[in-house]
Amino acid sequence: MKNKWKIRTIISLLLVFMVSFLMIGCEIEGDISDRKNTKENNLTVSFIDVGQADSILIQCGNETMLIDAGNNDDGKIVENHLKKMNVSKIDYLVGTHPHEDHIGPLDYVIDNFKIGTVYMPKKTATTKTFKDVVNSLNKKGLKPIAPKVGDTFNIGSAKATIIAPAEDYKDANESSIVIKIQYEDTSFLFAGDAETLSENDMLKSGTDLSADVLKLAHHGSRTSSSDKFLDKVNPKYAIISCEKNNDYGHPHIETINKMKNRNIIVHRTDEEGTIIATSDGKNISFDKNNGTYNEGAKVNLEQNDEKDIEADSISENKNENDMKVYFTEKGKSYHLDKDCSSLKNSKNILMGTLKEAKDKGKSDPCDRCAL
Ligand SMILES: [Zn+2]
Ligand SMILES: [Zn+2]
Ligand SMILES: [Zn+2]
């Protein structure tokens, strides 16, 4: 009798154990499939259509990062998109560099959302836009951090790594914060307005630059996205954030041809509006059809009224003054080509904007390379 009772007890204990084990098994399985199915556990990247500017929202798990916020007038657009995506707190706010088309309404965003960590480069500006941002940061007691290359942090289960700037470059675009995000097997590289100088330093750093999606630097300008850089990033997709018929002709034909020749699929806000990319950790999908390989439209002056022509020539002048030129300490002219034959005998070739060159009295365009 005693033995029979013992065996029964053992059998029933075993049964209880097996049943509960099966139940735990089910629960684990349920957990995994839930995780695969719920949107919150994907990585979602919104390239918000803010015209000739950048604003990118990254969401993973319950955490968010906002990279840039468009031009000064775009505060509401960014706010509306964040609300649509159920964002009330921005865990990481990044102002890539102090140009208006990137930090324009950062003050508005700081005033209207809960903000965690703020990343901005060392570079400052004397503009009202920049001062507004500083004021809003001060009001909330927020201190921006200038991140270092190699710094990492997590957005949900995605890993963010700072890729640039390697130093405080003279040029604001070059000083852009560049961030790579790895989510399981998929990756994104957000290149701000970084140009060739910073690209070369990124290449030198030996960091793994490869990414499935590259937010093309500087709105698809020819001054960024060098072949060497594209070789290393080797993206499947390129995102261009720019406005239709913008003053700069972005994306430039040189850049768009590189995309075409490399069979990189292009998505662009000037054609598609706001673009949302979703990664499930293995694959990346887009909510819009692919963009075209058309270069940015050249503005046809004859079709514009006088006021537009005036505005165009002002912005063209502004662009021209920002143009990179080469000159020497003693020379009177400026050069567009660093390898210009008239510079052959000069040991110390200086570089600066056209405005800087003119301010130094180098106002003659070189007749070999600058006419
Ligand atoms: Zn810029
Ligand atoms: Zn820009
Ligand atoms: Zn020259």
From TrEMBL:
Superkingdom of origin: Bacteria
Q: Which Gene3D superfamilies match?
A: Ribonuclease Z/Hydroxyacylglutathione hydrolase-like (3.60.15.10)
Q: Name one GO molecular function term.
A: hydrolase activity
Alphabetized, the UniProt keywords read: Hydrolase
Q: Record's SMART domains? A: Lactamase_B (SM00849)
Per its UniProt record, what InterPro entries does this chain match? Answer: ComA-like_MBL, Competence_DNA_uptake, Metallo-B-lactamas, RibonucZ/Hydroxyglut_hydro
Q: Which Pfam families match?
A: Lactamase_B
Metallo-beta-lactamase domain location, by residue?
Answer: 52-244
Under PANTHER family, the record lists: BETA-LACTAMASE DOMAIN PROTEIN, DNA INTERNALIZATION/COMPETENCE PROTEIN COMEC/REC2
Q: What is this protein called?
A: MBL fold metallo-hydrolase
| Lineage, uppermost ranks | Bacteria, Bacillati, Bacillota, Clostridia, Eubacteriales
